[in-house]
Amino acid sequence: MLTPQHALDRAQNLVSQAMKAGADAADAVYVCDASTEVQVRLGQLEDVARSEGEDIGLRVFVGQRSATISSSNMNPDILAGLVTRAIDMAKEAPEDQYAGLAPQDRLLTGAIPNFDGDDGLDPDPALLRAAALECEDAARAVPGVTNSEGAGASAGRSIFALATSHGFAGVKSGSGYGISASVLSGDGDAKERDYEWRSTRHFADLDSPASIGMRAGERAVKRLNPGTVKSGQMPVVFDPRVGSSFVGHLLGGISGSAIARKTSFLLESLGAQLFDSSISIVDDPHRMRGLGSRAFDGEGLPTARRSIIEKGVLTGWLMESASARQLGLEPTGHASRGISGAPGVSPSNVHLEGGSVSVADLIADIKHGVYIHELAGQGVNPVTGDYSRGAAGFLILNGEIAGPVSEFTIAGNLKDMFAAMTAANDLEFTRSMNVPTLRIDGMMIAGA
């Protein structure tokens, strides 16, 4: 891999070429990465994969017309041709009154903060293999586990560089590590599957492989011999690993492009009380070693910690420059950028806070309900907020988690579900989007 400075030089050089060739404005993104992944199954090495790549993308503006083009070939002659084609394409593109680079007076200036997202390591494949084997061995050692879909360990590093013609130049590097296992319990037609995984920026921050594997095995065994749920309206409790999907639906509904196109179920909700006043949802791009941490966004604007939901109230949209112009607002530092196409929006490290009771207390008064640990299907309408998904989990009877259940559907409307949501106090920061255990009363269950 290149050094971060060499990566930034490549992006800056491409922008410089574009301006000399006649572009009115331009930006360039350079991305390179290298990763190693080891897969094992039933105690045997199954695969070792190493990938390395680099790509560069150029966006040029000719008046209000723009075009993007990308390449994985860094040959100078190829890149020179790339610039020429991009400008020719832009001249033929339709005008867009909202297109353009981010406001120059809003760009990040000065030193770029470092959030310790790169430990600089490149673990040997033998170390990754040992971790994967330890993880799978621990999962298979759980009584009741009868087979394995395998375990894996991975390590990678990446560099992202962004340069613009109006003064921004920034680069960031990141490392990433993961361990996972997926195993089966039971025999014949009564098999059940479950999994566990962890991802971190620093190798030293990973949970032990044995603990990850043990959790995968225990979850698979707990799912054995599922029963059915009777249809009706009841409280539903969501495990953190699936509850985070609700935050994802919220974020999709408040993206600037969805609001500008009037295709969001939250279109008229700015400043509205969407959640209980005990709940806040925070986007924190400056968390040390956070999976989604970043000092600048995909347009070169500075990032900042922000409460998207403040005591239940929706505080604003997530906007890149184009949608902000269309809405007559300011961009929010949430632009995301790949090597092709115009910027979109994405959050950084998001978490839901506000729970004050234990999980046991959260479910203590539920006479009959369900605890969900798996969701299936894509039955969510982003325009209306209507929600219907397949689910599996456990019954809750008289305030206690009871036996496993599967093959049922939960349904509601996201706005109603947000309003009825309460949270436990078991928030952990293990992903880029984190929530505690969540409870939603009054959901419809379609079961047996």
From TrEMBL:
One of its GO terms (molecular function) is metallopeptidase activity. Residues 231-447 form the Metalloprotease TldD/E C-terminal domain. GO terms for cellular component: cytosol. It holds the Pfam family PmbA_TldD_2nd. It comes from the Bacteria. Residues 121-224 form the Metalloprotease TldD/E central domain. Residues 33-90 form the Metalloprotease TldD/E N-terminal domain. One of its GO terms (biological process) is proteolysis. Belongs to the peptidase U62 family. This is TldD/PmbA family protein. It comes from Sphingorhabdus wooponensis. The lineage of its organism: Bacteria, Pseudomonadati, Pseudomonadota, Alphaproteobacteria, Sphingomonadales.
